[in-house]
Write a structure and sequence with these properties.
Blueprint: E1 2-3, E2 6-9, H1 13-24, E3 29-33, E4 46-47, H2 49-54, E5 66-76, E6 79-90, H3 92-102, E7 106-109, E8 115-118, E9 121-124, E10 128-130, E11 132-135, H4 142-148, E12 160-168, E13 176-180, E14 187-194, E15 198-206, H5 207-212, H6 217-230, E16 242-244, E17 256-257, E18 260-262, H7 278-294, H8 311-322
Parallel strand pairs: 1-10, 2-3, 2-11, 3-7, 5-13, 11-18
Antiparallel strand pairs: 4-6, 5-6, 8-9, 9-10, 12-15, 12-16, 13-14, 14-15, 17-18
Helix pairs in contact: 1-3, 1-7
The structure holds flavin-adenine dinucleotide.
Flavin-adenine dinucleotide binds near residues 12, 15, 33 and 266.
């Protein structure tokens, strides 16, 4: 049995950011992840300058694929908008492994099943025990399931459904493109080029709206890859897409119960306009660590709800994506 100060379940951006901050403050931290890193994570891999700042990343020293865009092309019902903004792209396969390594934490490949609280400690599968536990296990997080689900049930209206594929490709267009509400999709599709010859393409939308329309994500996907062929962004690729689901931010009532904390997708923190989850996962991971170290309140009041820098645009997009949900 391994005893430590904090056990973190999940080594994605939320878990590794938390571990990084805890280690910097000298706490004995163990990260448990069911996957062996580097691991595949479905994600477009678009990150904001805020993520780089929160993680104090020196992008000149980042040893993997990293690209910066000075604009994004938004396509909305035949309208083309060029949005001047600075954004980055990374490959999650590389980025997550790099962040976890940088946290210099003890990492165990372990699929967490059972969490119990005995004698003031959290016991994980009777193998690991700590007075603090952090749930960073994404949508299927066992800490959420065991400790937080009852007080924070997930609203089905806030669930996303996605389908995507990342592949090696000699792209010609170095810009990021987003197609909103194409063919009636309650969401958007993307083309995100990556450094070192990779591209990520995908579609995502609100699951409940899609269901009510009687739609199927695979039908929208087929139409999207047809478009990528016609507009010349991607040609002659054999797609092997996969799907994943996560939650955008609702009213998160309880993010701490006794000495258990929850961060990132486990609690559903992605933005309500563009479903951006890396930034909120990193931010909440660092905040949870600080609350543990300094004993102050774990508070996510200042966590962004929108990705759009323009407040009004963010609100309009939110309304179109999730409607009036709480
Ligand atoms: C198709 C798609 C595209 C996306 N594009 C973007 C984007 O471009 N930009 C953006 O900001 N966000 C994007 N997101 C959202 C973003 O990927 C997530 O919000 C982000 O990964 C959340 O980080 P996390 O650390 O909370 O969880 P995760 O990254 O999901 O990490 C959770 C970890 O927990 C582990 N785990 C799960 N269960 C257990 C268990 N029982 N025991 C041990 N370990 C466990 C998993 O193996 C995983 O490594 C996208 C999501 C999808 C699906």
């Amino acid at each position: 049995m391994r005893k430590c100060d904090v056990v973190i379940v999940g080594g994605g951006p939320g878990g590794s950011a938390c571990a990084w901050e805890l280690k910097r403050q000298g706490l004995d931290t163990v990260v448990l992840d069911r996957a062996a890193f580097p691991r595949l994570k479905l994600c477009a891999g678009w990150v904001t300058p805020q993520v780089i700042e929160d993680l104090k990343l020196d992008i000149n020293k980042y040893p993997h694929s990293f690209m910066t865009f000075d604009r994004i092309h938004a396509h909305i019902k035949g309208l083309k908008l060029k949005l001047n903004t600075t954004q980055h792209s990374i490959r999650r396969y590389e980025f997550d492994n790099y962040l976890l390594g940088r946290s210099i934490s003890e990492v165990h490949q372990h699929h967490v099943k059972k969490i119990e609280r005995k004698d003031g400690c959290y016991w994980v599968d009777n193998k690991f025990c700590a007075p603090y536990i952090v749930g960073a296990g994404g949508t299927k997080c066992p800490v959420y399931r065991t400790i937080f689900r009852e007080s924070n049930p997930r609203a089905k209206e806030l669930q996303t459904v996605t389908f995507e594929y990342e592949f090696s490709y000699d792209w010609e267009d170095p810009d990021c493109h987003l197609w909103f509400f194409m063919n009636g999709l309650p969401g958007y599709s993307w083309y995100v080029p990556k450094a070192n010859g990779y591209v990520n393409v995908g579609i995502g939308g609100m699951a409940d709206k899609l269901k009510r329309k009687g739609g199927d994500i695979k039908t929208y996907w087929r139409k999207f890859i047809e478009l990528l062929g016609t507009n010349g962004k991607v040609r002659n690729v054999r797609y092997e897409p996969t799907g994943y689901s996560y939650y955008v931010r609702g009213n998160v009532d309880k993010i701490r119960v006794d000495n258990a904390f929850i961060v990132g997708d486990s609690i559903g923190l992605a933005t309500r306009d563009l479903c951006e989850g890396i930034g909120p996962a990193v931010h909440s991971g660092i905040e949870a660590a600080r609350a543990i170290v300094h004993g102050h309140t774990y508070d996510l009041q200042d966590l962004i709800r929108h990705s759009a820098e323009n407040r009004l645009l963010g609100k309009v997009m939110e309304r179109l994506m999730v409607g009036r949900q709480r």
